[in-house]
Structures are given as structure tokens and as C-alpha cells.
Amino acid sequence: MSTKRLLLQLLGMCAGLLLAYAYLLRFERRTLARLDLRGDPRWGPLWPLADALRALGKRATGALRGWALAGPLAGLALALGALALLPSGPDIRVAGFRLWASFTAYDPDLLTVTLLGLAPALGTWLAGALSAQEGLREGATEVAGRALAYAAAGLLTLAGAALVTGAHTLGGIVRWQSDALPLLVYQPLGLALYALAAALGSRRLPATDDAPQPALLDYHLQHAGAGWALLHLVEYLGLLYSSAVIALVYLGGWDGAGAHLGLRLIGVLAVLVALLWLRHTWYRVWRSRFGTRAWVLLLALAAANLLVTALALLGGGAW
Predict the structure, then answer these.
(1) What tens digit of pLDDT does each residue of 11-30 get?
(2) How far is CA 43 from the centre of its chain?
(3) What contacts 289, CB < 8 A, 6 or more positions away?
């Protein structure tokens, strides 16, 4: 791929991610949280995008300013890099013209996939480490610890997928599904556990989330300056990354109907909407019942899923 085409594709990717962020925010707040937040009527249907750009362009204030802004910026760069490193399948050609090509031929293994998913949490931790405010440092450290805990549960869940397919890379798992049904048929519990780990571990803003309406708290944080808005964007990119991994591992990836880029993107966005709904409906339930021990339960269930999968394979079940 030429440098010019690569730059155009990167710009297109960034523009698409910004659009997705703006309108998913509107969906989450107005549909899931049922907040009647009215936009500027001068922008018409583009007001979610204008609102997101305004929040990202606000002058940094409070604890996230100066050197502390390096944290959100580093998190943004790492999150974009993690998304670009995910294999996107075969090239898309229209009338012989290559419309889309994968950014990389790299085929990450499942451990690397899990580590790349920690990019948003790393940016948040760095923001806290560089901040002079003790409360932000403590919140960022808690965020990083929670992300590591849920990442461990997610990795153990992906181990069940590796057992079934005999592959340890994303590309290998997708290729296995080309000759079989989507992996969700064989690993329904694994899909549910990975989705829960992604949803419960995606709250990566270093601020208290026990407000009566978390979406309203997010709204105020997002408009508190460029630093908070960037952290909010990075959190959404982390959810998008998890959605892409789910689509690749459990929903067949780019095989079959996913051979078309548009259908691949629609599938990932559908998973992302489901994760937003899951986070909105289940996050506070699990937090109130299990507190900081929720990841332990997920880890135990993932271990049980792995054990049952191994026993079924050894017993020659219908795999």
C-alpha cells in the first residue's frame, strides 16, 4: 500500500471513529439513560458531532492539564494503534479498485490481543501518575487494577476458544470458523463471559461512578475540559476494540457475509451497542452485589468453562 493511500485510510478511520463516538454517545444518553439532552438546533442532525468536537476542543482545566494531558493523548494513540493492529480480513475491491486494505498483515495471538486491550487503562493510569491531584492518582490506579483483573478473566475465556479451534491467533480462529459454524455455537458461555468482562471492565474514567445517573456524570466530565473528554473518547475506543475482538472470535470474523467491509463494520457496531446496553443494565447490579470481587466470580466461571470445554473435547463430544 502506498504512503498516500495509507494516510487517507488512517484519516478515514479517525473520521469514522469520531462519528461513531458522537452518535453512540447520543444513543447511550437518550435511549439507554433516557436523558433529555437537547443539542444546538443550528446544527440539526449534526449536533452530536458538534457537541463531541466542542468537548474535545475545550481548554484543559483542573487536574488534567499540563503534563497530565500526556496520559489521555498517549491512551488515544495506543487505542488507535490497537485497533489498527487487529486483522480486518481480505482487501475490499470495487471494479478492480482496492477500496480498503488491512493496515497490517500481523496476526496477534490471544495474549497480545488481551494486552492491546489494556491501552485505554494505561493512558488513564499515566494521566493519574502525571497529575498533581492525589484523588486523580488514586482513581487512576484503581482503574488500572480493575482493567488488569477483568483482562485476566477475558484471557481465560479466550483460552476456551483456543481449545475448541486449536488456534491461538485471531486469524487462525477466524479461518477455523470458515469450515464450521460461528464459535458462539460451541462457546455460548464463553461469549457471555467475555462480553461481561468487557462491559464491566470498560469503566475507565478515574472518577466515582456511584452517581444516581452515571451517564449524566459522564456528560459533566466530558465537558470539563479536553483531558476528560479525551479519556472519555479513549474509553469508547476500548469498548470498540472489545467489540471487534468479539466479532472476530465468536461471530465468524470476515468469513461469509463478513467478506464485505460494510457488513463487518455493521457487525462490530451491533456488538458495541450490545456492550453499551450490557454495561448500562448489568454494571451497577454486579457492582452492588459483588463490589470489587466481581472479577473473581468471572474468573471462576471462565475457569469452569475452560474445564468443561476440555472435558468435552477429551470425551469426543459433538465438537
Answers:
(1) 878 888 888 888 888 888 88
(2) 29
(3) none
What pLDDT score does 64 carry? 75
- Residue-level length of the chain: 319
φ, ψ of residue 44 in degrees (nearest 5): 60, -135
What is the pLDDT at residue 54?
85
Cell of 137: 492518582
Segment 217-263, tens digit of pLDDT: 777 777 788 888 888 899 999 999 999 999 989 988 776 555 566 67
Over residues 123-141, the pLDDT tens digits come to: 889 888 888 788 888 888 8
Which residues, listed in sequence order, are joined to residue 169 by a DSSP beta bridge? 109
Q: How many Å apart are CA 21 and CA 48, to the nearest integer?
A: 9
Grid cell for residue 46: 449534526
d(CA 98, CA 79): 26
Q: Is 100 helix (H, G, I), strand (E, B) or coil?
A: strand
Cα separation values, 270 from 2, 222, 273, 274, 277, Å: 32, 24, 5, 6, 11
Instruction: Yes or no: say if 92 and 100 are a contact pair by the CB < 8 Å rule.
Output: yes
Query: Cα(319)–Cα(315) distance, rounded to whole angstroms?
Result: 10
Ranges of the chain with pLDDT below 50: 318-319
Q: Where are the domains of the chain?
A: 3-35+42-314
Q: Are 275 and 209 in contact (CB under 8 A)?
A: no
**Which letter does DSSP use for residue 59 in this model?**
P
